[in-house]
Amino acid sequence: MNKIPTAEELESIKYDLAIAGRDVDKCYTANEQAAWRIIGEDDYCQVISLGCDEYLLTGDCPDIWTGDDLRRSRRDLALACGIGEQVATDGGDYQIIADIADGGEGDEGVCVYVGRHITLGHCDLIARDNASYWVVGDEDNRDRNRDQWDIIEDRCGRIDLEAVRRVDADLADWLADRRKEAIEG
Question: What mean pLDDT comes out for the span 106-114?
Answer without folding.
Answer: 86
